[in-house]
Amino acid sequence: MRCRQVIDKISDYLDGELDPELVRELERHLEHCEDCRVVVDTTHKTVEIFYHTEPAALPEDVRGRLNQMFTQKFHKEEPR
Amino acid sequence: MPTHLDNEQSLVAAAQAGDSDAFVALLNHYSRHIYRLGVSITGNHHDAEDVLQEASLKAYTALAEFRGNSRFYTWLVRIAVNVALGKLRKRALWKESSLDEPRESEDGSYIPLEIESWGENPEEACLKSDLQQVLSEVIQKLDPKSRTIFTLRDVEKFSIEETAKLLSLSIPVVKTRLLRSRLKLREELTKYFGKGARNAMPTSHR
Q1: Which CATH class is domain B122-205?
Q2: Nearest-CA neighbor of B55 among B70, B41, B69?
Q3: How many domains does chain A have?
Q4: Which of A50, B84, B171, B175 has minimal CB crowding within 10 Å?
């Protein structure tokens, strides 16, 4: 397998969707190609960082306006 | 993807029966995820707030249509994605968006430029709030279609199939965009986390 093919298959490899034979070929390539090893490793870390980062809390003003919108809506819908 | 609420099924049932507190409890659990999704797709906080408000209202109005075939969150995301894409379409950013990627070889392959290993724990290299800012900055370097795909798959953790379905795109299109997005983001993050990092802190902190 050549470097270019490794790059094209990184996503499938990281997602565990690569055919086992291709996994073996790709990993054989990684054993002797430092550059591809770095690219695969840092792509893996990229995916992991996004995967594990929780969203920040909703900004207070945004939450306030959302609650206000529903308070008004619920108020209007109350049976008289 | 956020965790299930323990009592989600009963909250949904109560909300469907007209219990507004139950609906607010559901919404409060998922709102920050919907807001982050809105920021990622539309690229700005103002539109993200619109997405959150409009999607919440639509969900409330259409609650009776939720049959429980998927998670409530997936159903809510589908509504939010449609609202957000509507905004992109209005700005003509969806159909036109192509990968703005100058480093393609003649056969269309992506050529990595930044080849530099990272430290063991890049997450620990900056404060949590700084990390959130870095991630939110770099994701905006993707075109709208790619960052929507990347956000659904790698941030909100939907499968490739679910992502394709949510966006009415084919699986090969999703896979190609995802690969390129991951590679592009890898390059961008190497500027922060590479051993000779040029950007130690988010732009606003420098």
Answers
A1: mainly alpha
A2: B41
A3: 1
A4: B171
Nearest chain B residue to A73 by CA: give it. B57
Print the domain residue range for A22.
Answer: 3-77
CATH 1.10.1740.10: which residues of chain B?
A: 8-90
**Residue whose entry in the numeric block shows the structure tokens 């968006």:** B97
pLDDT (tens digit, 0 to 9) for every residue of chain B, 206 residues total? 777 777 888 899 999 998 989 999 999 999 999 999 999 999 999 999 999 999 999 999 999 899 888 889 999 999 999 999 999 888 776 655 554 444 555 555 677 777 788 876 777 766 666 888 889 889 999 988 899 999 999 999 999 999 999 999 999 999 999 999 999 999 999 988 887 665 555 544 43
CATH number at residue A54: 1.10.10
Instruction: Say if the Cβ atoms of A12 and B175 lie within 8 Å.
Output: yes
Nearest residue of B to residue A14, measured between CA atoms: B179
Please give the backbone phi and psi of residue B118, each rounded to the nearest 5 degrees, phi first. -105, 170
Model ipTM value: 0.89
**Helices and strands, number each (H, E), in chain B:** 8, 0
Q: What is the third-level CATH fold of B8-90?
A: Rna Polymerase Sigma Factor; Chain: A (1.10.1740)
User: Nearest CA to B52 among B16, B88, B27, B70?
Assistant: B27
Chain A contact for B65 (CB, 8 A cutoff): no
Is some CB atom of chain A closer than 8 A to the CB atom of B112?
yes
* Buried b or exposed e, range B83-109, using 16+ CB within 10 angstroms: bbbebbeeeebbeebebeeeeeeeeee
Backbone φ, ψ for residue B110 (5° rounding)? -90, 135
